Amino acid sequence: MTKGLQIINAYIEEYPLYHEFIKILKDVFILRQESASKHKENIFPLDEKTAEQKLSAGNSLVNMNQDAFSPFLPQQYFLELLTMRNPGSAEDIKRKLLAGELDYEELIRKSFTIPKAACIAVEEDDEAFDLLDFLLKESMHPFFALLTQEYKALIAGSKWSKGRCPVCGQEASLSFLKTEEEGKRYLFCAQCALEWAVNRIQCPFCDNEKQQKLGFFTIGNDEKYRVYICHQCKKYIKTIDTRKVPGQMDLEVENLITLHLDILARKEGYF
Ligand SMILES: [Zn+2]
Ligand SMILES: [Zn+2]
Questions:
Q1: Which of 89, 115, 190, 262 has a C-alpha 20 to 30 A away from that of 173?
Q2: Number of domains the chain contains
């Protein structure tokens, strides 16, 4: 699934309601590519052996609560992102970061400890999307994506089948079904650009396999999207049936244009 700007433009036409979000993502993709070509260094002190040990112990390659990393390059990219999009308090944040009054590392660690989609407000009058938090997480994207590239084969070999991402440890952003392998479902982490396979009829968060405790809902006649829910752990995962997608798709864009599903699932008491 390539990330051509053509695909993004097609989304903008198809989803006018999400026009603004998709345009933000388009700008981010352009800046991300520039950043990725400049910053090719691994900011995490990780080697093959440690990576293997972490995965076999069921731990993600990076634990943002405690693992060391070098914040210099992501902070630089964050400043570029703020300049590009200028969310409300951007100037103030930039000034404070440069003056050392704000600590980037502290901000980013805090952002990662907030559970999935916490920036999506459930109350209707709240902002549905936290641009600042989105840009903050984006500032780590190129560096997690480098880990994904480096350890993709190791992860595949480890048969990781949890709902958490094996690279960054955050819960999967969404899942998707493919035609070919009926028994499998694929999870996707937007933070790390990683896809991994899990059992289709099992909750990836608590391993529940009891059919009566699993379910899904759809919205109206839209067959492309489902929200799978688990009555045991109360978690949900947005799911795309790629068999219902005629053209090319981009999972990061899909994650953003399905914010209404996150809001709905949260209103129903799932998280
Ligand atoms: Zn991840
Ligand atoms: Zn569950």
A1: 89
A2: 1
